[in-house]
Amino acid sequence: MSFRWIASALALCLSAGCAIPVRAPSAPAFDPSAGAVLVYLEPPPAEARRLTASLATLEAVREDGGRIPLRLANPSVGGNLSLGPHRLASGSLPPGRYAGLEVTLSEATLADEEGQAALGLPDGPTRVPLPFAASAGSGTVVEMQLDLKAALADGYRFQPAFAATIPAPIPVGLVGLASLPEEGLVVTFDRRSGRVTAVTPVGRRPVGIAIDAVRRRGYVALAGDDALVAIDLERGTVAERRPLRGGDQPVDLALTDGGRVLVVANEGSSSVSFVESTGLAETGRAIVGDAPVAVLLDRTGQRVFVACRRANRIDELGFDSRRREWQVVRSVATDPGPFRLQFNRAGSRLYAAQDGSPYAIAFDADTLAVAQRPFVGPGQTAIRVDPASDRIYLARRGTGTIEVFDPFSLLAIDRLPIPGDAAFLTIDRENAGIVAVLSSRGEVVRVSPLSRGIEATVPAGPSVAFAALIGER
């Protein structure tokens, strides 16, 4: 193929208005041989809205004087950022001991009666003391706070008067986990306040998460590594790691048999693995329809339902006691793109959300006959059924809401506004809220069905995919 032909074709495409796809750059994954650090800026006082400042650099300073530049995510200070914490920077740190951080400002202005006045800046970087250690596979969360009074003590000169702390571990009962596939991280957050308290580097493309409250472990599917990891929730470290088969690309998982067995959907190999939760050894496998992306177990744990996205079907797995293996015992067709399954409280209805159809489907869980097929609208992205009320919460692309459906008529009865599109939903039983993962904003939010307001926001990080809570339902 000649260069002239390529140039002519490109010119023809441009003249016809063709769109040339450009892949947006993703956040770089963390180096597994290094330690991860996430730096969050705590909200300054309300009067800091008069101040607008921006960081030029943020570096981690080793005890031997070496400096490691961190990636700035949102370098702004003050302004309208006083409503909640935001991720300031992140990076991979070589193992060793660190003395703190160094901040260099690029600009700062202060609003007064006459408009915006530029503030003088220090000649060089300002040290923020914080002794901590980094080690391979470990993570550190740093919270920075601005002392506004000290920062403006010299009138029209801005001194970066920051303090830095490492948040104390939270009780396991308050733990929430969120996966960041682009960065290879899982962050731990306080489900009550939304504060990020820990970070764990786990591997490539972490997606689905399951939490065992009894064993105090979080299990994560690593689609990019064809592996599973177990996180010790008390220490925030990887307790076990084990590969599956090459090309499996595990994306979703659920616990059964009293937490002793993990059921894993392998999108890449169109299979479901059964894995011991201690040791992560695979004990069984079943071949299912193309691209299994979600698994759901009934109350007994004897029936496993699998949403096969490209096959446009749901497979039911059962255990053949004679052959001592799991196998597909029944399949049912769906509309295009089934991607998430939910039971009602009684376990008599099986709901399927479908991203290629404007309809949802409610199956009779015993016969898998279609019981209802309501029109809900195109662009379904997430679904969750509240077992306390049987209400169905559904998110759709481009709506900025979570729609609430009556469990009997399957008609929409309410809308909960959220600041973006939800990619995943779960229920926070302790705080009576709906938890939504907003991938495009890098946030996890808890919205109250009663007040219809956002009660907590987790600034998790770029393209956050899944969230799981202790005791979620």
What are the key terms here?
mainly beta, 2 helices, Methylamine Dehydrogenase, Chain H, six-stranded antiparallel sheet, 473 residues
Structural class: mainly beta
Rounded to the nearest angstrom, the distance between the terminal CA atoms is 57 Å
Based on CA atoms alone, the radius of gyration comes out at 25 Å
Uncertain spans, ≥5 residues at pLDDT below 50?
Answer: 1-25
Our count of helices gives 2
Mean pLDDT: 90
Q: How helical, in percent, are the residues?
A: under 10%
Shape: globular
The beta-strand count equals 39
Give the strand content: over 45%
Largest sheet: 6 strands, antiparallel
In short:
The protein has 473 residues and is mainly beta. It is 4% helix and 51% strand. Among the domains are: 35-165; 206-333, YVTN repeat-like/Quinoprotein amine dehydrogenase (Methylamine Dehydrogenase, Chain H, 7 Propeller).
Account of the 3D structure:
There is one protein chain. Among the domains are: 35-165; 206-333, YVTN repeat-like/Quinoprotein amine dehydrogenase (Methylamine Dehydrogenase, Chain H). It is 4% helix and 51% strand. The protein has two helices and 39 strands. Strands 2, 3, 5, 7, 8 and 9 form a six-stranded antiparallel beta sheet that branches. Strands 4-6-1-10-11 form a five-stranded mixed beta sheet, with no helix packed on it. Strands 14-13-12-39 form a four-stranded antiparallel beta sheet, with no helix packed on it. With 473 residues, the chain is mainly beta. Strand 12 (175-180) and strand 13 form a beta hairpin. It starts with a helix and ends with a strand.
